[in-house]
Design goal:
InterPro entries: 6-hairpin_glycosidase_sf, Beta-AFase-like_GH127_cat
Oligomer: single chain
Shape: globular
Number of helices: 13
Distance between the termini: 41 Å
Domain Non-reducing end beta-L-arabinofuranosidase-like GH127 catalytic: 99-170
Protein name: Non-reducing end beta-L-arabinofuranosidase-like GH127 catalytic domain-containing protein
Structural class: mainly alpha
Helix content: 40-55%
C-alpha cells in the first residue's frame, strides 16, 4: 500500500509509504489471527520488517532518541510531508520526538509468529523509549498517550516487568485527573480518541481497575454528546468494553453506530485503513454471546 504525491512521476522520492500507518502491521496481524487468511500474514510480515529496520530509529547507545519512531506515513520512507505536495523533494527527514507515531505491537507480533529475535530487540528498544517519558502529559493529542500505553503494555505482557505497567498506570491517572478537572475532555485530535480508548481497554483487561471504566465512559459520552458528527470506528473497541458491563446494554447499539463508519473507509489504501481500522477485529468480540454473557 503506497501513495504518491505527483501522479506519473517515477522519482523514488515521490512515494509515501503508508504500510505502517498507526501500526498497520499489527492490524493485519490481528486480522490474520481472526480469519486465518494468509494474505494478511504475508502483508504483515513484510511491513513489520520495514517497521523494524526503518520506522524505528537506531541511534548509538545512550542517544535519548534511540528507539523513537519516524513520522507516519512518511515521504520517501524517512521524511515528513512536503510543505507543497507538488514538491516532494523538499520534504525534510524527520524523527518524532514524541510517541504520537509510535508503532511497536507489530514487532512483538513478528517475534511471536516467527521467533525473529531482531524484532524483539527493536520492540524492547522502542518500549524503553516510550518508558522514558514517564507519565505522558500531552492532552492535546490523545494518540501520544494511547500509543505510549499500548507499547508499555505490550512490553509488560512479554517481559512481566512491572515498571512498564506502572508507567502505563501513571499515564492513566494523569488522564483521570484531567477528566476530573476539565469539562471539555478533548480539545483537538478527535480522530485520535479511539487510540486512547484502546490503550485504556487493554489496561483494564490487565489490571481490572474499575476506575478505567469510568474514564472510558466519560470519554465516550463526551464525544457522543459534543462531537456527534465525528464518529470514528476506532472508538468501537472502548465502547464495546462498556457494552459488556452489567449496566452497558445501551452501549451495544452505540458500538454498532460507530462501526457503521467503517463501511466508508475499509478499502481506502492509504491513511484511513490504519486510522479507522485499529481495534476493529477485537471490537467484534463484544457482539458474541461470550462477551454479552460475561455479566
Amino acid at each position: 500500500m503506497h501513495h504518491i504525491w505527483v501522479n506519473g512521476d517515477k522519482d523514488p522520492r515521490n512515494i509515501a509509504w503508508n504500510g505502517h500507518y498507526y501500526d498497520l502491521p499489527h492490524i493485519t496481524a490481528l486480522e490474520f489471527y481472526r480469519s486465518g487468511k494468509w494474505l494478511y500474514y504475508d502483508y504483515f510480515l513484510s511491513r513489520a520488517w520495514h517497521l523494524m529496520d526503518i520506522q524505528v530509529t537506531h541511534f548509538a547507545p545512550g542517544n535519548w532518541m534511540n528507539g523513537a519512531n519516524r513520522y507516519c506515513p512518511p515521504t520517501d520512507h524517512v521524511r515528513i510531508d512536503p510543505a507543497d505536495p507538488r514538491d516532494f523533494t523538499s520534504a525534510k527527514v524527520f524523527v518524532s520526538n514524541t510517541t504520537n507515531h509510535h508503532k511497536t505491537q507489530g514487532l512483538f507480533d513478528r517475534y511471536y509468529l516467527t521467533g525473529d529475535e531482531r524484532a524483539l530487540e527493536v520492540a524492547l528498544k522502542a518500549a524503553r523509549y516510550a518508558q522514558s517519558f514517564g507519565a505522558y502529559s500531552d492532552f492535546i493529542q490523545p494518540r501520544g498517550a494511547g500509543f505510549q500505553v499500548l507499547t508499555l503494555l505490550a512490553a509488560y505482557e512479554y517481559s512481566g516487568d512491572k515498571e512498564y505497567l506502572e508507567t502505563a498506570g501513571r499515564t492513566f491517572q494523569l488522564w483521570r485527573q484531567h477528566f476530573a478537572e476539565n469539562e471539555a475532555k478533548f480539545t483537538q485530535g478527535y480522530f485520535m480518541v479511539g487510540f486512547l480508548l484502546e490503550a485504556f481497554t487493554d489496561y483494564y483487561n490487565i489490571t481490572g481497575d474499575k476506575q478505567v471504566l469510568d474514564v472510558i465512559r466519560q470519554a465516550v459520552d463526551w464525544m457522543h454528546t459534543n462531537r456527534p458528527y465525528e464518529k470514528y470506528s476506532n472508538m468501537a473497541l472502548g465502547i464495546g468494553l462498556l457494552a459488556s458491563q452489567p449496566d452497558g446494554a445501551a452501549y451495544l447499539d452505540l458500538e454498532k453506530e460507530y462501526l457503521e463508519t467503517w463501511h466508508g473507509v475499509w478499502d481506502n489504501p492509504f491513511k484511513d485503513f490504519g486510522l479507522n481500522g485499529r481495534g476493529i477485529a477485537r471490537a467484534l468480540y463484544y457482539f458474541t454471546s461470550e462477551a454479552q454473557g460475561a455479566h
